[in-house]
Write a structure and sequence with these properties.
- With 234 residues, this protein is an alpha/beta fold.
- The protein has 9 helices and 7 strands, in the order βββαβαβαβααααααβ.
- It has a 7-stranded mixed sheet, sandwiched between helices.
- Helix 3 links the parallel strand 5 (92-97) and strand 6 (116-122).
């Protein structure tokens, strides 16, 4: 079972590395709660097609160490960069989902793009999701606070209530089974309460709107190519 050590505090971080070592590299960064398992329907077929697919279990998630600290965006981004360095990956496509998109962006702004050729930001949370002066269309802070209280009180019930938001289970033609929903929520619940609430705080505390306006277009030519997709529900 492969592990890397965080360059910040030596936390052991589990990762998977599938496909041929010589293949074009894709590195997958998960959403707030699951580990690399959320990407199984992407990583397996891509690895079988000859791509090298790497997935990281964020600290406190999956098989990585259960630690108390490090649930801030800089540390999480440094953990990601540490894996790229550990495996000496080049010409990487970084693929992040939800809070994973923020980690990808922060990784690039802290460490540059020497190892990264392109990024895919799926359901991105930048510049933020909570309503503020610069984000008038964001979520009401009172609603976010009530949601946080519910999450802390009963995580299994929170995930059950969120099934439609995550999987659109009530949508016509949706073929996601109840068994698969339970499976992935079990993986989400494997993240420690500390890790889950810590990463939630990264999402709710994110507000890059002012900084983004001040830097608009400043270094566009030095950034890797990117794709962008809609914002998530969680």
């Amino acid at each position: 079972m492969p592990y890397d050590e965080s360059p910040v505090d030596s936390t052991r971080l589990h990762y998977v590395d599938h496909g041929p070592a010589s293949g074009t590299v894709a590195v997958f960064v998960a959403s707030a709660y699951p580990g690399h398992e959320m990407w199984e329907h992407r990583m397996l077929p891509l690895a079988e097609a000859g791509y090298r697919c790497v997935g990281l279990d964020r600290r406190g998630h999956g098989r990585s160490d259960d630690v108390w600290s490090g649930y801030d965006l800089d540390t999480l981004a440094d953990d990601l960069q540490g894996l790229l360095d550990h495996l000496d990956l080049r010409e990487v496509t970084l693929i992040g989902y939800s809070v994973g998109t923020a980690e990808v962006v922060r990784c690039l702004t802290r460490h540059g793009s020497d190892r990264v050729a392109r990024v895919a930001l799926v359901c991105g949370v930048s510049p933020g999701i909570i309503r503020s002066e610069h984000l008038p269309g964001g979520v009401d802070p009172l609603v976010a606070r009530a949601d946080e209280e519910f999450f802390r009180r009963d995580r299994p019930a929170w995930f059950t209530r969120s099934a439609d938001a995550f999987f659109a289970v009530s949508s016509a033609g949706n073929e996601v089974s109840d068994a698969y929903v339970r499976h992935l929520f079990d993986r989400c619940l494997a993240a420690t309460p500390r890790a889950s609430t810590g990463v939630r705080s990264v999402v709710t505390g994110l507000d890059l709107s002012g900084a983004r306006r001040g830097r608009a277009g400043a270094r566009r030519a030095r950034h890797p190519r990117h794709l962008r997709a809609p914002r998530p529900h969680g």
